[in-house]
Amino acid sequence: MKKLVTDLRNLPNKLIYSIIIVLFSVFIVIYAYFILSWSIGMNTELATYGLGNSEYLYPLHTQYFLLDRPTLAIITYVLGQVAIPYFTLLISMSLLFVSAIIWMVILTKKNFSIIETLVFCSFYLISPIYIFQFNFVNQAIGIGIGFVLTSLAIYHFSLILNHDCEKFKNYVASIVYLFLCIGIYQSFIILFAEGVIFLLILEQLKNIKTNLKVIISILTKILFVSLAALIGYLLISKVIYIFIGESHYLANVYEGWHSNSFSEVIKHLLLYFANILISPLSFTYVLASLLLICFVRKFFLIIMLALLGCLALPFAFAVFLGAPIPLRILFPIPLSIAIVMLLIFRVTSNKKLIIAIACLCLFVNFKQICQLTYSQNMVQKYNEYNLEHLYSILHDKFGNKLYNTPVVFIASPKADNSFYIRHIYSEPFYFNSDEDFLSNVFPDKMWQTSSINHRVYYFMQWLGLFYKLPTEQQIELGKQISPSLAIFPEKGSITKKNNIIFVKLSE
Predict the structure, then answer these.
(1) Distance (Å, rounded) from C-alpha 148 to C-alpha 167?
(2) Phi, psi (5° rounding) for residue 409?
(3) CA 115, CA 103: separation in Å to the nearest integer?
(4) Alpha carbon distance 128, 252 (integer Å)
(5) Where on the phi/psi map is residue 447: left (φ > 0), alpha (ψ -120 to 50), or beta?
(6) Tell me, what's the pLDDT at 192?
(7) Closest Cα partner for 276 from 307, 239, 318, 235?
(8) Where do transmembrane segments lie in this chain (predicted)?
């Protein structure tokens, strides 16, 4: 850390401090709508308010321990579970900017100019993909810390490659920082891999010819640091399981290779990648890929393969799990784009064109950030409207007895036959969001060790709509009687049996 502070003080051009201030101002303006938009979702954010005790809903830090995120659990325990409106997101996004400052130091030490650094930062800092991750407000600060820790791990790894540095201390620092950031969110290992591959590329750019010996040496160091951090992370996770227990979240949500045929997995993955590529969110990613193909002759084969690897790495978990992954897990994408665009900018003679493209991407990303924020706010309001509508129907039907009666909602994300759910997807503000409750409420065991029915229960409590939380056995009963019920809003979609109210929203 002392070395980093020294490097910050010794930045060769004092103008860069003014640029950092201007860049931070632009950064905050672009994310202002997102930062100032405050809403409570149906996921872990509901734990913030401690709305009653439930056998299904563990304390937030315990949830993170169960999900193999020990560092995030400790951060949450220390900071407390209550997210502060506006300031939480401001602090989180500021931490992302701090990670960019560390990258500025790395790039400056690698003799990149101020303009080149600005091109890198414009792609690294501004991306709609971040919205999906930072939207989980109770873990947002932890994620911001994760970006800082990953950048520090990459910074110390860059010092390992310098012959005049204390390698042992930097090895330890890089391993510790990587271990901590993986403990916040597993995808940070991808972010680290992209960063060190970039350092490998820079080492190769120094040479006129490909130096296989240097490549093997650097890859060995990357492997050593990564394995040491991963082994430490896995050991800590196993120790935690002894005291808290193990979550089956990944096994339940990402069935993938172990439960589907090879052809089915490939089919689902191809469809997933196709949907990602045609999404408006992929504009900058596709543009960077096309530009890389156009400049293929400017790079050695090994460098070209490394750059293609950087672009492919964010999807590594999807391939590893054999299942589509949420957009929030793809937050390493902006760094991969920034690396590709920076190196294209360095090798091209038409730098004004790349600057123009960077400005265009800034505008597009700004527009998409606002669209996503608006979309999530509107879906949130629509969720509230739908829940209040359903609750009023139940109250009209059962009266005040509803307050002390468990309600089981039966639904599935594969609800093609449900007009009610398809109607939500057709809403004009539904912009690549998975925030609707109807696609997430169904009686199968998921997330922790329980049903997701508790999401709606706590969300209704937040809205001031009260009923009794159903037990796991009552939810299982709902699954059994589901075939005999009609689909809402048809007659027979709501029934009461064994003093339990069942509402069938889809098959």
Answers:
(1) 21
(2) -95, 130
(3) 14
(4) 28
(5) left
(6) 95
(7) 318
(8) 15-36, 86-106, 112-132, 139-157, 177-202, 222-244, 269-292, 299-323, 329-347
Spell out a b/e string for 139-168, using b for 16 or more CB atoms within 10 Å of the CB, else e: bbbbbbbbbbbbbbbbbbbbbbbeeeeeee
Give me the helix-helix angle, 137-160 and 212-243, nearest 10°. Answer: 140
Q: Distances in Å between the alpha carbon of 472 and those of 408, 425, 444, 469?
A: 10, 29, 10, 10
What are the CA-CA distances from residue 296 to residues 291, 292, 293 (Å)?
9, 6, 5
Q: Which residues are within 8 A (CB) of 73 and not within 5 positions of it... i.e. 6 or more apart?
A: 61, 62, 63, 64, 65
Residue 172, Cα to own-chain centre: how many angstroms?
27
Look at residue 464 in the predicted model and tell me its pLDDT.
84
Gyration radius of the chain's alpha carbons: 25
**Spatial CB neighbours of 88, under 8 Å, sequence gap ≥ 6:** 137, 140, 141
103 within 8 A of 151, measured Cβ to Cβ:
yes
The closest of 336, 333, 316, 334 to 325, measured between CA atoms, is 316
Task: Specify the pLDDT at position 461.
Answer: 80
Phi then psi for residue 283, to 5 deg, are: -55, -55
CA separation (Å) from 64 to 71, 184, 290?
Answer: 9, 9, 39
C-alpha dihedral sign at 358, 359, 364, 368? positive
Measure the CA angle with vertex 290, ends 310 and 23; round to 5°.
Answer: 65
Cα(355)–Cα(359) distance, integer angstroms:
6
Cβ atoms within 10 Å of 113's Cβ, excluding its own: 13
Q: Low-confidence residues of the chain, pLDDT below 70?
A: 1-15, 39-58, 81-82, 163-165, 207-210, 245-260, 412-452, 507
CA-CA distance, 406 to 474, in Å (whole number)? 8
- The amino acid sitting at 88 is T
What's the pLDDT score for residue 443? 45
CB 458 within 8 A of CB 452: no
Q: Give Cβ neighbours of residue 237 (< 8 Å, ≥ 6 apart).
A: 68, 70
Paired tokens of 234: 């896995």
Q: Provide the 8-state DSSP code for 406.
A: B
User: What φ, ψ does residue 450 adopt, rounded to 5°?
Assistant: -135, -175
| Overall residue count recorded for the chain in this entry | 507
DSSP 8-state class, residue 322: T
Assigned token pair, 136:
């989980």
Q: Is the four-CA dihedral 269, 272, 278, 279 of positive or negative sign? A: negative
